[in-house]
TrEMBL record:
Metal-binding is among the record's keywords: no
Location in the cell: Membrane
GO CC annotation: plasma membrane
Record organism: Manacus vitellinus (golden-collared manakin)
A family per Pfam: MgtE
Signal peptide segment: none
UniProt-recorded name of the protein: Solute carrier family 41 member
Cross-referenced InterPro entries: SLC41_membr_dom (IPR006667), SLC41_membr_dom_sf (IPR036739), SLC41A1-3 (IPR045349)
UniProtKB keywords: Ion transport, Magnesium, Membrane, Transmembrane, Transmembrane helix, Transport
One MF term in the entry's GO annotations: inorganic cation transmembrane transporter activity
Length: 392
């Protein structure tokens, strides 16, 4: 629906922002959920003093990261959109900046509060937060962020001509609040350490997602690939959701055996074989098999929902479903294997996987998912009837 709104048609660089901002749920909210789930599981949130110290510090950290990454994502969208087209519009650039920063801040504030509530409720009900918090962050993150981005950008676009000062004022307001959140985060040594050391994965993940956004922008702008708009958030959301659960579970499993950097026989140094990742009797291998088996039934539900709501511009024929499922299965297979290697690799190098692994994995999920989906649509267009209703 949004691809037909005036703001998306006239400021097409917004499509580059979509995977980058939806990827914030992997960069920030799911990392927060993983970090707090581990803290809850190992007893670091049992007393009221520890609880409130961890909550306030992590929320302030989240808002700092959201503001900075939202600003950087808008710059990336402007650059990636300007280089292929050779056209630069200052008013559109400021609109992208204001929309991105405002969306990232409000979405992170809302989702962060929900994550805290989910983790508290899970602990009280005797449920492992690793199995609940990250999927909720992933699914709600996509919905909330896309709704906020569309609403905020549409509102700011209407004021672009008559009230030219609104967009720069929005940017300045959220950037001016940064010192306050930095001051609050600095009071907790754990969050201050994360704030000082976690920029590399967050920024690199944002850049990777922006490349996926560039692919989306190039394809959605082509009438022959118009149907990709409805399937991209689905395939990326499912892939990021499943791999984040696996990364969070492996990280908690390792934290229960020691601290990052402590080598043991349960922490392999070498790149794992696919058999050990998916076919062994290890608890993490079993969870990888379960998550992989969820791909087909999960996507079938989404495809049926999209079809019944008459969403998108693609006829769901058997050959389309086969190509789509192949892309989805391949994406999750690659992500689960990378997660098994990456979490252990980071652990052995004294890096906390809760803070470093999920941004990379969800960003790779966006890039791989969008790329495989674009390839699938291109193949279907080559063998199909070559109109916008790919698969018909």
């Amino acid at each position: 629906i949004l691809q037909h709104w005036d703001v998306f048609k006239n400021v097409t660089n917004l499509f580059i922002l979509v995977p980058a901002l939806l990827g914030l749920k992997g960069n920030l909210e799911m990392t927060l959920a993983s970090r707090l789930s581990t803290a809850a599981n190992i007893g670091q949130m049992d007393t009221p003093k520890e609880f409130w110290k961890m909550i306030t510090g992590n929320m302030a950290l989240l808002l700092v990261q959201a503001t900075v990454v939202g600003f950087l994502a808008s710059i990336a969208a402007v650059v990636f959109g300007w280089i292929p087209d050779g056209h630069f519009s200052l008013s559109h650039a400021v609109l992208l900046c204001a929309s991105s920063v405002a969306t990232a801040f409000v979405a992170s504030l809302f989702l962060g509060m929900i994550m805290i509530g989910v983790i508290i409720g899970s602990r009280r009900m005797g449920i492992n937060p690793d199995n609940v918090a990250t999927p909720i962050a992933a699914s709600l993150g996509d919905l909330v962020t896309l709704a906020l981005l569309s609403g905020i950008s549409c509102g700011l676009y209407k004021d672009l001509e008559s009230k030219f000062y609104v967009n720069p004022l929005v940017c300045a307001l959220f950037l001016a609040l940064l010192p306050i959140w930095v001051f609050v985060a600095r009071k907790d040594s754990a969050t201050w350490e994360v704030l000082c050391s976690s920029w590399e994965p967050v920024v690199i993940a944002m850049a990777i997602s922006s490349v996926g956004g560039l692919i989306l922008d190039r394809t959605v702008s082509d009438p022959n690939f118009a149907g990709m708009a409805v399937f991209t958030p689905v395939i990326n959301g499912v892939g990021g959701n499943l791999v984040a659960v696996q990364a969070s579970r492996i990280s908690t499993y390792l934290h229960m055996s020691g601290m990052p950097g402590e080598s043991s026989k349960t922490v392999p140094w070498k790149c794992p074989s696919p058999c050990s990742t998916f076919c062994s009797s290890d608890v993490n291998s079993r969870s990888a098999r379960v998550l992989f088996l969820l791909v087909v039934p999960g996507h079938l539900v989404f495809l049926y929902t999209i079809s019944s709501m008459q969403g998108g511009h693609t006829t769901l024929t058997l050959i389309f479903v086969v190509f789509y499922m192949t892309a989805a299965l391949l994406q999750v297979l690659i992500l689960l294997y990378i997660a098994d290697w990456m979490v252990h690799w980071m652990w052995n190098r004294d890096l906390d996987p809760d803070n470093f692994s999920i941004p990379y994995l969800t960003a790779l999920g966006d890039l791989i998912g969008t790329g495989l989906l674009a390839v699938s649509f291109h193949i279907l267009w080559l063998i199909g009837d070559r109109d916008s209703d790919v698969g018909d």
